[in-house]
Amino acid sequence: MQTLFRLFTALAAIALLLVPPVATAQEAKKAPAKADAPAKGKDLYPPAFFDFMLKQRVAQGQPDSPELRAAIRDELNTRELLVREAKKQGLDKTAKAEMDLTAQTVLVRAYMADYLKAHPIPDELLRKEYDTIKTQMGDKEYKVRHILVEKEDEAKDIIASLQKGEKFEKLAERSKDTGSKATGGDLDWNAPSNFVKPFADAMVTLQKGKFTTTPVQTQFGWHVIQLDDIRDAKVPGFDEVKPQLAQRMQGQVVDRYLRELRAKNGM
C-alpha cells in the first residue's frame, strides 16, 4: 500500500491569517482617543479579526470554548500593542516591501483556494487516474536488493564473487547507493513502475533468490540486482486514496491555469 501512496503526491493545504472581536460602539466612544494600551476589558482589534481567527482555530480542530476565545483575544490585543510600538519606530515604513509581499501571498492563496473550489475534479477523472496508476503498478510487487557501482568491471567482479558464494549483503558495502548499502542493498517492496526501465526489466525476469548474472546499466551507473521475494500487489481502494488523487490532480489544474494566464498576458 505504501508503494501506491508514494505515487499520489499531494498538494499543500492553504494557510490563512489573523482575526478577533472588538468593543461595542458605546465602549469605543468612552475609550481615550490616543490610548497606547487598552483599558481593562477593552479590545484594540476589529471584530473581523476575532471572527476570522476563531473560525480558523475551530477548523484546525480546537473546540470553541471560553478558554479559546480568551486566548485569541489576548493574542490579538498583544499583536496590536506590538504593532503600535513598531509603528512608533517607523518599522511600518522600513518593512513595507515585506509587508506588501506578505499581503500579496495571502491574497494569492485566497484566490487559488477560491479557484480550486470553483473547479473541482470530477469523480470520473479521479477514477480514470486511479485506473491508470493501477495499470502502471501491475499486479505484482518485488522485494529486491541491489549494488550500484561506477564501472561495469566492478559490477562483473561483484557478480563473480556472488557466484563463488559470497553474501550479497556483505558485497553491498561496496555500493555507491548510500541509502541502501547499510541495509545490504535492500530496496524493500516496490512495483516495477517505481524503477527506471532497464532496472525494472531485469528485475521482473529474475527468479526468487537469484541475482543478475550480467551488470544492468542505468543513468545512475551499473547495478547487480537480487530478487528476494514476489507478492501480489496490495492496492488500496479508490475511496482510500481519493483525497491524495484529488490533491495531485488539483496541482495539474493549477499548473494549467497558470500557463494559460501567463500566455494570455504575453509571458
Concise structural overview:
This protein is 53% helix and 11% strand.
Description of the structure:
There is one protein chain. With 267 residues, the protein is of the alpha+beta class. It has 2 domains: 14-118, no CATH class; 140-232, Roll (Chitinase A, domain 3). The protein contains 11 helices and 4 strands; from the N terminus they run αααααααβααβαββα. It has helices spanning 2-7, 25-30, 48-59, 66-88, 91-94, 96-118, 123-137, 152-163, 168-171, 197-205, 238-264, and strands at residues 140-149, 186-190, 216-218, 221-232. It has a 4-stranded antiparallel β-sheet with strand order 2-1-4-3. Strand 3 and strand 4 form a beta hairpin. The chain is elongated, with a radius of gyration of 29 Å. Mean pLDDT is 86; it is low at 1-37.
Arrangement of strands in the largest sheet: 2-1-4-3
Count of beta strands: 4
The class by helix and strand makeup works out as alpha+beta
Number of domains: 2
Number of helices: 11
Largest sheet: 4 strands, antiparallel
Query: Given the C-alpha coordinates, what overall shape results?
Result: elongated
Fraction of residues in helix: 40-55%
